[in-house]
Amino acid sequence: MNPNAGTWSPGGMKPAFDAAPPKPAFDAAPPKPFFDAAPPKPAFDAAPPKPAFDATPPTKSTSIGKSSSIGKSSSISSIGKSSSIGKASSIGKSSSISSKPKSSPPAPAPAPAETTGGDDVDESDPLWVAVLKIAEGDKVRAKKMIDDPDSLLKYPEVAALMGSSGGGGEDWEKVDELKIDDATGGAPDTLSGAPATVPAPAPAPAPAPAPEVAAVVEEVEEEVIDEGDPREHINLVFIGHVDAGKSTLSGNILYLTDNVDKRTIERYEKEAKDRNRESWFLAFIMDTNEEERAKGKTVEVGRAFFDTPDKRYTILDAPGHKNYVPQMIMGASQADVGILVISARKGEFETGFERGGQTREHAMLAKTLGVSHFIVVINKMDDPTVNWSKERFNECVSKLRPFLKGCGYTIKKEVKFIPISGLSGANVKDEVAGDVCPWWKKSYESGENNTSSPTLLSLLDSLKISDRDRDADLRLPILDRYVDRGTIAMGKVESGTVRRGQKITVMPTRETFKIDAVWANEIAVQCARPGENVLVKISGAGIENIQKGFVVCGGEPCRSTTKIIAELYIMDMPEVSRLASMMMMMMISNIVLITNAFFFFLLFSARRNRRFSAVDFKLFSTHTASRRNAPFPRSLR
Amino acid sequence: MTNAQKVTTKNATFAVVGQKGIFMVDIERSIPCDTFDNAPFLGRFTLRTQGKTIAIGKIKKLPPKK
Question: Which of A361, A546, A567, A600 is best to mutate for the B interface (most B CBs within 10 A)?
Fold first, then answer.
């Protein structure tokens, strides 16, 4: 950078700054960015002038020289000039403006500022004259017109004036004015503003974003595939007790399907070794944040994609720890296939089942959250305490059967058991070696355990997901949203098809928007079928219009209510008497506080019985009914 | 109150673990939902408190449209 730049700025600009505040003109919006943008000027001084401006007449190009501090002498002269503005501005900048046609660029920039907002208009300014002419001598109207340069350009006189690049000053002014206009339009950090810097940056900001946007649009259009990938898409959720090996298994699946490159694996291996937890390296693929890695516990639902020749999958790696059950519920509510990971290692299998073990709760939740297929993988079969023993496998299976039956699964149809090793990858993609596990081949060939496929991936490929209705009304529960050139919502299409340009209603707010773009697994598509995880850009919606737990509806919107009649299955009893205070209801990604439900005699019964043998679920007590004048419950009886 | 699809008690005041029943639930704010029969994914929910799942439910009926 030119050493002069440094001296130029403080020397030249300071006075201009000082002079600014007293002028009412500068309180107006347009001039403001000019002053905001002024300080970074030295940076632009170093920038080479744009070719467009090299072609301008001699008077102007010398001024460019000054402004960009190319020549020492010229920079000095510009100092002189801008400081003269400072002085002049006390009596009105118009005085310096009037000398504009032959003066340096620092002068013209304040000119529009003056003309737009100020009282002292430079009467000799050709642009002003022209505008005044258009405005038929009405000064107020002319000022207004100058405020709006875009519309001004419609007039032939002005256009001609603009076209004549010889009239340097006006051109400048115009550019500057436009710039200021741009800058006020939400980009105060654009390079505009300071007169001296105009030559270099002025052409840059305006055209620069445009090609970029165009490029993006083009890109999107090129990428658009009508239906996306024709292969079926399935969401898998891995559930199970803490440390059963969910993350390791999902990591290994990604590795075996070539979605993680070798170098990354080596890096993770080293990292895991540094932590003295060598067996965790596969889990590091899924557990990306520091906290998760340090403790070896998944906290947030990890997401990853992989595909096989037949199908595409999204892995949702749910946390196993009991504190993170809400996250697990959110993960499982998107899933089509649940994979319950059970550790076969001695002791671990049993703890998962004890009261408080997550195996139980997870299996239960998965069933109720609409997981249609359930695969039980008996993991850690390679562990020394198990060593692919058939007895241990059968023991696990026989213990799981009655339990899963209790959760409401029909064992014979829905549940499949498969022994695997998440760490070594046996039976995940490739079948376990015959000499390690001789009994497995016989077992799957005879169709024991409902499994006729030898490996987990082949089993997944053989699954058929029904109940996907692509002609129904669109329902897209929003799981998350963010802002990236518009509001983008994330979710899984539960039914119907989401298309670009489709009109949608967002429930429960009932606002209507239009869908601008649809991405399925990060590829832009025209429409997405049910079962796809999609990102949709919703035009016209602010971040507050689209929130987690809302449902994007097409066609007839779904209902939205605060009162429901539901069939409840009581699973567990709260142990503490304070419970009445808080009870949450979780639906999709909604968590709602239950305000008024059915526990009227709870505390009473607690006192009498000393313990909770029963929770009072008094059916819509008369008290509530009368208070709310609700005729609704009567229809139930 | 129904248990095993048979009505065992009418206007019961208690439910014990393992029982199914039909309940009315009021919630704090309006949420988008639908009956389980119409749209299974919008008709399922869980009740949790203190880190435990107490009950799971299916929506049977919604209040009549206004």
Answer: A567
Q: Chain A residue closest to B59 (CA)? A: A566
Per-residue pLDDT tens over the stretch A500-537: 878 888 877 788 888 888 887 777 777 777 777 788 88
A507:B40 CB<8 A: no
Does B5 touch chain A if contact means CB atoms closer than 8 Å? no
Decide if A467 and B25 are in contact by the 8 Å CB cutoff: no
pLDDT for the residue A239: 82
With 80 as the cut, is the pLDDT of residue A76 above it? Answer: no
- CB-nearest to B26 from A365, A370, A595 is A595
Q: Element (H or E) spanning A238, and its range?
A: strand A232-240
How many angstroms separate the CA of residue B56 from the nearest CA in chain A?
5
Contact B44 A368 (CB under 8 A): yes
Residue A382 has pLDDT above 70, yes or no: yes
Distance of alpha carbon A607 from alpha carbon A268, whole angstroms: 56
pTM: 0.56
What pLDDT shows up at residue A385? 75
Binary contact (B54, A572; C-beta < 8 A) = yes
A24-37: string of b/e by CB count within 10 Å (b at 16+)? ebbeeebbbbbbbb
Which pLDDT does position A189 carry in this prediction?
39
Q: Which one-letter DSSP state was computed for residue A336?
A: S
Do residues A504 and A411 touch, judged by C-beta distance below 8 A?
Answer: no
Q: What is the pLDDT confidence band of residue A452, given thresholds at 50, 70 and 90?
A: low
Question: Residue A485: its pLDDT value, please?
Answer: 77
Minimal CA–CA distance to B53: which of A568, A562, A319? A568
Tokens, residue A254: 């990604």
B4 in contact with chain A, both atoms CB, cutoff 8 A: no
